[in-house]
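Usage example:
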Amino acid sequence: MENINVVLLAGGDSSRLWPLGDKNLITFVGKPLIYHTVAKLSRWGFKKFIIITNKDNRHTIEKWMSVFSSIDVTFVDQINRKGMAGAVLSVKDIVAGKPILVIGPSDVYEDILFLKFQKMAKKEYQADGIISGITMETYFPGGYLEILKDEVKGLREKPSPKKLPSNIVTFVFDYFKDSTLLIQKIEKIKEDNDDVYEQAIDGMVKDGLRLKFLHYNGFWGYLKYPWHVLNLSAYFLNQLENKTSNNVQISESAVITGKVYLDSNVRILENAKIIGPSYIGKGTVIGNNVLVRESEIGESCVVGNGTEIARSHIGNNCWFHTNYVGDSVISDNVSMGSGTVLANFRLDEGIINSKIRNEKIQTDKVKLGAVIGDNVRIGVNSSIMPGVKVGKYSLIGAGVVLNKDLEDKKYCLLSKQEYVIRDNLQKTFSSTRKRERNSLKFL
Amino acid sequence: MENINVVLLAGGDSSRLWPLGDKNLITFVGKPLIYHTVAKLSRWGFKKFIIITNKDNRHTIEKWMSVFSSIDVTFVDQINRKGMAGAVLSVKDIVAGKPILVIGPSDVYEDILFLKFQKMAKKEYQADGIISGITMETYFPGGYLEILKDEVKGLREKPSPKKLPSNIVTFVFDYFKDSTLLIQKIEKIKEDNDDVYEQAIDGMVKDGLRLKFLHYNGFWGYLKYPWHVLNLSAYFLNQLENKTSNNVQISESAVITGKVYLDSNVRILENAKIIGPSYIGKGTVIGNNVLVRESEIGESCVVGNGTEIARSHIGNNCWFHTNYVGDSVISDNVSMGSGTVLANFRLDEGIINSKIRNEKIQTDKVKLGAVIGDNVRIGVNSSIMPGVKVGKYSLIGAGVVLNKDLEDKKYCLLSKQEYVIRDNLQKTFSSTRKRERNSLKFL
Amino acid sequence: MENINVVLLAGGDSSRLWPLGDKNLITFVGKPLIYHTVAKLSRWGFKKFIIITNKDNRHTIEKWMSVFSSIDVTFVDQINRKGMAGAVLSVKDIVAGKPILVIGPSDVYEDILFLKFQKMAKKEYQADGIISGITMETYFPGGYLEILKDEVKGLREKPSPKKLPSNIVTFVFDYFKDSTLLIQKIEKIKEDNDDVYEQAIDGMVKDGLRLKFLHYNGFWGYLKYPWHVLNLSAYFLNQLENKTSNNVQISESAVITGKVYLDSNVRILENAKIIGPSYIGKGTVIGNNVLVRESEIGESCVVGNGTEIARSHIGNNCWFHTNYVGDSVISDNVSMGSGTVLANFRLDEGIINSKIRNEKIQTDKVKLGAVIGDNVRIGVNSSIMPGVKVGKYSLIGAGVVLNKDLEDKKYCLLSKQEYVIRDNLQKTFSSTRKRERNSLKFL
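Running the assembly step on the lines above writes:
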């Protein structure tokens, strides 16, 4: 594997993930996604990495890559054409004539993918490349492969659900023995569409080049829409081992069950309960009577008294206080007032919808809460409806029932609640409460 | 007692109990009311039962009666005229010439009633029957007895509160030595009013028949209005003994005080507290930090984290989540979102009213929550006002403050909350929270 | 000290403290403020007290003063002119020719003030009096002293912030060797302004009388605005020692940390947590899962299940139930429904404002909840915004988000929530919940 150039496509925009930020930098169990990807590839034996970044994420990615001592990483800003094709063109000179493995760094796979790849790469030394694909039970808006025996015979991007060439969808884990074959093909395509990369592969096989098919059947985690963060989160949580780091304080009455990773300086107060798999980041405080179930919570958070967080992905520096947060994705530096609830279940128990770029998308989820961007503040006793997304730096007032997305940098508040104020003529109060108090049964 | 035909009037409609269903089938401590009634009568030594049913409840009642092995039960659908008179006419042929004891199966009495009845039935073998009555301190919309010494001299249905013949109200526990005497009298009355049964008794004594008066002074539980379920529930809970059934799991930090009946497969999680008398049905989960006080909860419920249920009657398959449920009656398959509250106390601490068939009724209660029918779903952070009733298969959206009854099969939601959305010009946040966090005192 | 007449000015009105009552009678750690003041002065060795009262507070103050056995107290109703000058004039005959120490009994100081005073009073036997003052870092709307060396050379009430004679503000702890000198000066001023007392002092020094300056630099607690109660409360709480009085019941699972004073008959239920310094009054019940942090709670309160009270001052006979009460001042006989929250933090994290006599005042606080008068009732799931004040005998309905002050004796409720009711066509429910239930992970 050592001579293969791993080309990581991290330069794209993540606008479909709004209000979340760059998909490569979304943190899972304490580290950004691209870190996990490179760590795994490094463990698999790859040594040479070329990461195509953009001006916004390059600095952060460089910082995280500096953690790895045994690999060689080159950073290239995506300057050419758009999409994956543009990303590949950006590294043209560096990889000219060399073998490349093109990878989308926000995808997550299991080791079985590498074992299959390794075996094929050794055996199929005569083929021109290897294209990976996975069987999808239901329609997926991606590239579908046409396959004959174990060779790819075509690739069609987002075909009509009625005219699928197969039920095999390509995810980007594509090996080319000589990068120049791919790059020349890309350069011949003049349009500047999103699917030039797929067209190029389709053109390569139509030209008679031999691309072998790698049939993967393990877990495939991807970040097409923001709620997919929950799928990846569940995957990473399941990889965790129990760990109690340095200087963790756990009250005697707290309960921890299942696999729970407690990072350094975590404090868990009286009667809190954490059900694994869960991850609690550095310095986070899990308050009294808090219930955390199968969730990851970032560092320096305060999860205050009586809050419940279930199956959610919480960033750093977040504050909660008597909240219910179910099946939600919450970014950094978010706080909620007491009594605010992120609803995660429709009254009619149907599949939850969400809008992406003004299009109503049916998520695959019956339980889904909110997706909340960085630096959001929510007042007390507010309710956010399932599937609603809240933009970065927005504020939501007390008592609001938010049932649609809120853009970045907005302030949403009850304009004027229609209440009446009239005289209260009753000036004395009956002794009911005293009677009630005396009859309280052990309270 | 063995030769007396107990005639149970279970064929009437229960529309005044809306949104609850058939009064005979309302479940108390795990079994329907009619089961409790027959069990008690059977224990008292009665052997022959004739149950007048209707097409909706017959099947279920038959099923429950099959549990009893030592009694003989005949089922008759109420086909004739309406009311109790119609019910009695339905069994005319079966009981012709025989002694009958007419009983409303949704009434609940204590054993002292039977002891008195048994004594009188032996002693008064020459009388034509025994009519039971109870002293009422305040006006009750029922049949009032005119009594001379120990004999009934008249019966007037719902007399004006100003012209009561006595303060003795009849409840239906009436013995007739020969059913034909009653039935002939009923048949002579041509109108088809609700009070034909009472008219017939009044006619019998006016004709010179001797009906002895049984003066009962124990507990009388009845189901005239839906909130009366709470009175019966309290009665049945008080009869319970402590019991922990098979396969019950109780966390070490849970607290159980008073008489609490835990049915099989109940699970009680950390720091839950149950104050007796309470009943928890099969397979129900009492979650973390839940407080149950003097309540009965049906089977397969999930009482989630931080919920409090006080003095309430909860059906099967209900879900709660950080709710407060006080003095409420909740049917089967109801769920509530986090933060929803059933208010049970007026701000002015007055008697709580409720509408029955469009008439405002003053309940006898200062504390009364909601009455909720089957299959209701309530969203998060909603508030239901005291005495409000919610119809079957209805949905209530998030944040609603419901202050009047909602019919069956309705969806009530905030049409559009009047909120404004404006730009949030503040782009950075002060370090207030960091300062606050550092100054937190043990949290 | 024994021959000094301490003149306590307790006759003023406390209207700026609305909706709180008479400032002298606000209770701290179980006793009214004037009690604390006299107790401290008595401990310092003063023996003769003249308290200027008004018709509303005289009776209560007399009652509380009767507790002290070793001091001599004279009560005088304020009948003359208004303000402090009027108060001093009210005692003219009693103190004629005698030394007086004029004190505002709602101010709180530390012992260092007395030690300084004692020293000066001995040394400066030739001066005509001693005026105390404190350095203020920011502008304070009070009287500013002009000082030369250690003598007061002038006193200007509320000067323009741009023309301050110094940064020394006078608080009322003023000694006059002969009261007549002050009283004659007051009598010469004909206007009836609020600042006649200050004018008189200014006039005295302008006339050549020698008033020495006592420079105090300890804690000064004052009650200008209602939220200042929280400052005094924090002061008194910090003076407390740990104490568990007679007949206190504390559950084994309750946690008490820091200095906590539990008065007699307090009951602390399971899993409650009290973080000191805190004070819990007689007979108060701290319910299950309640969290009290650095607060004082009066007597006969019921702090119900799951409530959190942080840094607040709570009167007697209050009821809470799953509430969050932060940085708030709550008077006697107040109750809140389940889910009601007193918000204490602005979304923009700014300084909290509050209106006093229709003027917007910037409090000095980033965290401030509500100020609530006596006999208020708040419904369920209501939200009171930071800095809002609620008048005595007022009611607030369920679900209200109150963002401005509510006068005394008002009833504020949602007029009609704009909800729609439509048919719910979905008649059956999917088995989602059953599936969810079965997949619950230890709940």
